[in-house]
Amino acid sequence: MQAIALINDDSIPSEVDVLALRNAGYAVTELRSSQQAVQGICDMEADLFIIDLPLSYANGFMLSRLIRRIDGEVGIILRNADSNERGISDGLRTGADLYFIKPLDTRTLLAAIHSLSKRLT
Description:
The protein is α/β, with parallel strands linked by helices.
């Protein structure tokens, strides 16, 4: 897994994630609005999408469903500060491979990406 699309409309946590992912050898594309996300999902060839919830102007679950319809093999990780069990199960039902509660430390995220990449290749 080399190309990662990070969908997050909060710039500060995104910058930390991007730096960590790039330092680990991943090519990262940031999609910082719902419009960029929808366009990026349709246009780019990412191996993994990381979607931070909630998004200001889009439903992250809708984005996950859209990604899964376009490419059934791509990895999808959802992250949310809300630990509501229904939200977690709903997120996984959209086709996400993993759902994490924020805050999520960088080592855990990188380990999850590594594990997911082994399963998807």
